[in-house]
Amino acid sequence: MHIRTITRALAVSGLLLGATALTAPAMAQDAKTITGGFDVGPGGFPKNFNPLAATGGFTWLNTYLEPLVIFNAELSAIEGALAADYTVSPDQLTYTFNLVEETWHDGEAFTSADVKFTIELAQNAAAGSVFAGRLGAIESVEAPDDRTVVLNLSQADGGLLSILAQVMILPEHELGSVAPESLATSTWWSTSPIGTGPFKFTRYVTDQYVELAADTDYRNGTPKVERLINRYFENPAAAVAALRAGEIQFTYVEPEDAKTFEGNDAFRVIEGDSFVVNYVGFNQRVDLWKDVRVRQAFMYAIDRNAIIESLYGGAAKVANCGYVAPHLVPDGLNDYAYDPEKAKALLEEAGWAEINGDQPITWLTYYNAPQAANVMAAVQAMLAQVGINVVPRVVDVPTYNGIVYKEGTPDWNEFPLVYAGLQNGPNPAGINVGLNKSQLPPAGANIMRIEFDDLSAAFDAALGETDPSQVDARWQDVCRVMNEELPWATMWVANRYGVASSDLVDFVWTPAPAGGPYAAHPENWDIQ
C-alpha cells in the first residue's frame, strides 16, 4: 500500500509539472469557460474529429454536431434531436422523421437534403465510415420536402435507431462536392467543421486542446457559457492532476481515483453502468482458437470474481455472455466458475502442447490506464498457471484501429488475441456489429472475424423480431449461443466514473458506451 501511494505521489507531481507547460487558451482568461478532459478514458476518442470514423468520443462531438435522434441522459429511451419527432410503420420497414428548423453554424439552412446526404455517406465504406455495415438494412432515403426524411428498409432492424443516434448529421453544402474516399484524410474535420449544435468549432491547437464558442442562434437558447474547451491528456492520471489543480472542471477517472474524491465538497463524483462488456477476443483467422475447448479453458482459467473484488472494488458484474441485464440472460447458462484444473484438462484434450505449447501470444489492447494494466497482468498470471503464455501489447486507439480494421490480408499474428470492450446496451443490438458474420471489416466492426452460423442466425432473428413480447426471448437466444460457442471470453460489465467540479451548474455527464451521445444539453451548462 505504501509503495503504491509513493508511486502515485511521484506520478502526480510529474504530471502537474507537465500540465503547467501547456499553453492555456487565451480566451479562457476573459470569457465564461468550461474546460474538461472530455476524451479521457473509455468513451473518449482523443484527437478524432471525424464522426463517421468515431468508435468513441461522442460526449464531446455532440457539443457541436447533432444526430437525428438521441438517447436521453438516463439511456432509457430514444428521443428526437434534429428530428422533432418520428414514426415507425407497424412492419418496421418505414421510418419517417419530421425535422426541426435549424441553421448550420455558417448560417445556411439545415434541411432534409443534409440528412439524406449524411446517411448515404455513412453507408459508404469508401468514406471510411464505421457505420457502413450497420446501416445495411436501409434500402433508400427519401427527402420529399425540406422538413421530412423517410427511410425505407429491406428488412426490420431492431438496432436502427440506436445506430442513428451516433450518426452525426453533416452539411451537404460543405462536403457534398468532396469525393467520399478523400473525406477520411480531409483537414476539414479539425480546421473548419460546422454543425448545428449549441457550440461552434473555433480552433484546434495540435495535441493540446479544442476550443468551441457559443452559438447565440441555437434553437434551444443561447448557451450559458461563452466557451467550451476540451483538453487532451495522455492518461486519466494526468487529467486527475489537472482537475485537482483547478485547470479543468471535469474528467473521466479510474474507480480507484474516484474514491479519493468522495466526501470532498469541491467535487461531485458521478457513477453509472458502463453498458460495455469487456472481453478477451479470439481472432478466428488464427488456428489457435479453432477448438472450442481451448476457448473454454480460457474461461475456466480466469478467476473473474477475484479480479472484480480486488481490482474493481466490486463495481462490476461477471458476464457469461454479452449481457448482464437480467431480462437478457436466460436460465441454465454455464457460469464458467474458476477451475484451473478443468482448464488444464481441456487444453490437454485439445492438444494445446502441439497447437502452441508455451509459445508467447501477443495480447493487443487500447486500454492504457493502470487499472487495465493490473487486470491484464492478473489474467496473464492466471493463464500462465494453466500453460497459456500471453504477452500484453498496449497501443493507442488509432493504432489499434489501424491494426484490427486493416483491409486486405492483415498480419493476423499482430492481434491473435485482444482485450477490448463493446457496447452491450442500452439497446442489446449494440454487440451485433462485433459478432455477426455480416459485420466483417471494412463494412462492420467484427474485428475478430467471427463467422459462427448459429450466432449470426440468432442475431438476425433478434434484430428482425417485430413482436415486442418476443424481443427479450430472442436476445436471450443470442446470449445462450454466445455462452456455448464462446466467440469471446466474456469477462464483466463494470461501472464507470466521472468527477466534476462543484462549480459546475446543470452539468450532465453519463458514462455511456462510446461516450454516447445522449441528451446532455450543453447549452444549459454553467459555471459559478
Q: How would you sum up this structure, described in words?
A:
This protein is an alpha+beta fold and 528 residues long. The protein has three domains: 1-21 and 32-48 and 197-266 and 502-528, Periplasmic binding protein-like II (D-Maltodextrin-Binding Protein, domain 2, 3-Layer(aba) Sandwich); 65-194, Alpha-Beta Complex (Dipeptide-binding Protein, domain 1); 273-495, Dipeptide-binding Protein, Domain 3 (Dipeptide-binding Protein, domain 3), CATH 3.10.105. The chain is built from 18 helices and 19 strands. It has helices at 2-20, 58-61, 112-122, 160-164, 172-175, 180-183, 188-191, 236-244, 255-261, 292-301, 304-311, 340-350, 352-355, 370-386, 397-404, 432-435, 453-464, 471-485, and strands spanning 33-37, 69-71, 78-80, 83-88, 94-99, 138-145, 148-153, 199-205, 209-214, 227-231, 250-253, 267-282, 316-318, 361-365, 390-394, 417-423, 488-501, 504-505, 526-527. The strands form four sheets. Strands 1, 8, 9, 10, 11, 12, 13, 14, 15, 16 and 17 form an eleven-stranded mixed sheet that branches. Helix 14 (370-386) links the parallel strand 14 (361-365) and strand 15 (390-394). The two termini are 37 Å apart. Residues 1-28 form the signal peptide. InterPro entries: Peptide/Ni-bd (IPR030678), SBP_5 (IPR039424), SBP_5_dom (IPR000914). Residues 78-421 form the Solute-binding protein family domain.
